[in-house]
Amino acid sequence: MMRVWAWGALLFGCMYFALPLIGMTEFSLSMRRGEYSFDAYRVVLADPRFQATFAYSVVMALVTIAFGVLLVVPTAYWVRLKLPKARPWVEFITLLPLVIPAIVVVFGYIRLYNTSSVLPLTGSVMGTNLLLMFGYATLALPYMYRSVDTGLRTIDVATLTEAAQSLGAGWVTILGRVILPNVLASVLSGAFLTFAIVIGEFTMAALLDRPAFGPYMQILGANRAYEPAALAVIAFGITWACMGLIGLVNRFSRHTQAKR
Amino acid sequence: MGFLDLDRLEKSFNETRVVRDFSLSVEKGEFVSFLGPSGCGKTTTLRMIAGFETPTSGAIRIGGQDVVNVKPNRRNIGMVFQSYALFPNLTVAQNVAFGLKVSGAPRDRIAARVDEMLAMIGLPDLGGRYPFQLSGGQQQRVALARALAPAPQVLLLDEPLSALDAQIRVSLRSEIRAIQQKLGITTIYVTHDQEEALSMSDRIVVMHKGIADQVGTPSEIYNSPATRFVASFIGTLNQVDAVVEDPANGTVEVGGQRLVLGRALGRARGARVALAVRPQALRIGAPGPGEVGLSARVVETQFLGAVQRIVVDLGGAPLSLDAFNRAGAHLPQTGSQVTLSAAAEDVLVLVD
Ligand SMILES: Nc1ncnc2c1ncn2[C@@H]1O[C@H](COP(=O)(O)OP(=O)(O)OP(=O)(O)O)[C@@H](O)[C@H]1O
Ligand SMILES: [Mg+2]
C-alpha cells in the first residue's frame, strides 16, 4: 500500500514538472499547421536581435564569471585561513542576494550611480554594462561562494598554504598554483550556475536598459505566439547543458579521484 | 653561538603561556629533537622557527641573522608536516620542483635537481604519479624531497612519521637520519615518540608545559634525567616512595628497609621523596662495593625474548627489573624472597 502511494507521489511530481515542458515543446513545434516543424526555431535563430542579445548575454556572463572568481576565491580562502570565526557572517552576507529582490538591488544602483551622482556610471554605456555586471555578480554570489567554500573544505587549506610558504611562495603563487587548481571543479560548477543565471536574467537588464537576452525573450513573448515557446525551450536547454557540464567536470577532475 | 639560536623565546595565546623561556643553540648540521607529551608546545616552537607564529618575546637567529621579522617564505626553511601536505593537483615531480620553480631556477637545473631528489628518496620512477596514487610512506618521502630540493638552511619536521604504521615508521626513521647526515643539514625534529628521539638525535630537548626541562644527548637524557618529569617520560622507570632519614649521608627508608645512598640529598629529615631506578640497573644478588641492596618478594616473571623481566613487590610497590636472557640463567621462583642490588648512583632521588 505504501508503495502505491510512493509511486503515485513520484508520478505526480514528474507530471508537475514534465507536463508544462512537454506542452511548451509541443507548441513550439506546431508553427506549421497540421504537422510538426522547426519553423519557430528557424525564425528565432535567424532573428538578428536574437543573435545580438544572446551574444551580449554570453559576454556578460563570461565577464561576470571572471569577476566572481577573482572576488570569491581569494575571499573564501582568506576567511577560511585567517577569519574562521567570521565564516557564519560572511556566509550570511553571501546569502542576502537570495532574500533581497533583484529589483531592489537595481533601484539602489540607479539611485547611487545615476548621472547626477558622484560616480555617474549610468551615464555611459560601458558604465551601465559594468553596473549590470556587478548586479549579476551579486545575484550569482550565493551559488559561487557556496561552491567555492565547499571545494575549499575538501583540502587542508592551512597546511597547504604553509607548505607553499615554506617553499618560498607568495600569496599570488599560492592562490594561483595551489588553491585555485584544487578548487577548480567547484569554481567551474559555480561558473556554470552563474552562466545560467545571467542568460535568463530579466529585471536588472531591463531596468538598466541593456540589450540582454532576458528582455529580448520578454519582448518576443509579448508579440509572437510560437517563437517564445521555442526560445524558452532553447533557454531551458542551455540551463540543462550547464548542469550537465557541472557533473562532467566533477567526474573528470583527475587529482580528486582519491576522495571518492 | 650556534647556527640556529633560540634566545629566551616566549609565546602566549591570549593569557596562556604555551612556550616559556625557551633557549637553545643548534650547531650547523646537528639533528635536534623536541620531545614531549601532547600540548607541551613543540609544534608552537617549531612554527615560530618557520615563521608561522610570531614570538611574544625573544629572538630567533639563523646564521647570526635575526629572522623574527622575516616572512616565512623568505626564511629559506624546509618543512615536513605530519599530514604530508603534498599539493594534490601536482605530480610528484611537480611537487618536488615547486620550491625551485618559485625561486625562478632555470628549467634544466630544476629537472636535474628533481631527478637527484627522487633518487635520494628511492622513488626515481614515480615522478609522474599524483599524490593520491602513493602510499603514506611514499608521500612522506616525497614531502621530504620537496622540502630539501631548494637546499634550505634548516629542515623542520613536525611528527612526520606519526601517521604511518609501525614498520614503515622504523625504516623511514633511519632513512631520514641517513639523508640528514649525508646532506649535513641542520634539523629540528618534533616527536612525542621517545624511541624515535633517542635513536635519531644528536641532542634531545625534553619539553614539559612549554619549558625545556632538559637538553642533552640521548644517553644523558636517558641515564641522568634532570627532573622527575624527564625521568618518568623517558623509558620505563621504577618509582617508589621513600622517607628521608638522614639527608647528610643519603639514608632513606623504603618499605620498612633502610638504604644508604652515600651522598647528600639536600632534603629535610622526614621529607617524602621518590626514588627511581631503571629496570636494567637492578640485578638479583647481594650488593657489592658502591651498591645498595634491598630485599623483595618475586611476584611475576616475564619472558620477553632477549630479556627477562622480573616483577617484585617492595613494601606494596611493584618494581620491575630486566636481566639478559643468557643460557643457563635461571629465573627466581614466584613468591620467593630475593635480594636486589643496584649501583647507588643509579638510584635517582627525584624532585617534583
Ligand atoms: N593558535 C592557537 N591558539 C590558541 N592556543 C593554541 C594555538 N596553537 C596552540 N595552542 C595551544 O598551545 C598548546 C601547545 O600546542 P602545540 O601544538 O605546540 O603542542 P604540541 O606539543 O605540538 O602537541 P602535540 O604533540 O599534540 O602536537 C596547546 O595547549 C594548544 O592548545
Ligand atoms: Mg604538535
From TrEMBL, chain A:
Record field: transmembrane: 54-77, 89-112, 124-145, 183-208, 228-250
A Pfam family assignment: BPD_transp_1
Subcellular localization: Cell inner membrane; Cell membrane
InterPro entries: MetI-like (IPR000515), MetI-like_sf (IPR035906)
Ranges for domain ABC transmembrane type-1: 54-247
Family, similarity comment: Belongs to the binding-protein-dependent transport system permease family.
UniProt protein name: ABC transporter permease
Organism (species): Thetidibacter halocola
From TrEMBL, chain B:
Domain of life the protein comes from: Bacteria
InterPro entries: AAA+_ATPase, ABC_SmlMolc_Importer, ABC_transporter-like_ATP-bd, ABC_transporter-like_CS, Mo/tungstate-bd_C_term_dom, P-loop_NTPase, Transp-assoc_OB_typ2
Single biological process term from Gene Ontology: quaternary ammonium group transport
Span of domain ABC transporter: 4-234
Keywords: ATP-binding, Nucleotide-binding, Transport
GO MF annotations, alphabetized: ATP binding; ATP hydrolysis activity; transmembrane transporter activity
Stored PROSITE patterns: ABC_TRANSPORTER_1, ABC_TRANSPORTER_2
GO cellular component, one term: ATP-binding cassette (ABC) transporter complex
The protein's name: ABC transporter ATP-binding protein
Organism: Thetidibacter halocola
